[in-house]
């Protein structure tokens, strides 16, 4: 089982307040300077997907998430299952 420090918790949400765009927040990478602001933005948004990615290889996982967000913001209809499938081996157990 992965240690808590071996994974990154994230959420994909739709910004309901400003742009209507899909965004991601990596909760376990927030610091005291941006934690409250980012959490409040996510809480005001419309939840789409949340999960964990493995810390090892997280840059590749973040690239996948960014490409999925671009597709969604360009109008493609993806499902949470599509997110899980695209992350594949980069996903960590909850």
Overall description:
This protein is α+β, with helices and mostly antiparallel strands and 94 residues long. It has one domain. The protein contains three helices and four strands. A four-stranded antiparallel β-sheet has the order 2-1-3-4, sandwiched between helices. β1 and β2 (22-26) form a beta hairpin. The longest helix has 16 residues, at 58-73. It is globular and about 35 Å long. The N and C termini lie close together (10 Å). 18% of the residues are buried.
Label this structure with key terms.
4-stranded antiparallel sheet, 3 helices, alpha+beta, globular
Strand-pairing-aware structural class: alpha+beta
Poorly predicted runs are none
Mean pLDDT: 92
Proportion of beta-strand residues: 25-35%
Number of strand elements: 4
Q: What is the radius of gyration?
A: 13 Å
Roughly what percent helix?
A: 25-40%
Order of helices and strands: EEHEHHE
Shape: globular
Q: Main sheet?
A: 4 strands, antiparallel
- Major sheet: arrangement of strands: 2-1-3-4
C-alpha end-to-end distance:
10 Å
Work out the count of structural domains: 1
Number of helices, where a helix is a run of at least 4 consecutive DSSP H or I residues: 3
In short, what is this structure?
The protein has 94 residues and is α+β, with helices and mostly antiparallel strands. 36% of the residues lie in helices and 26% in strands.
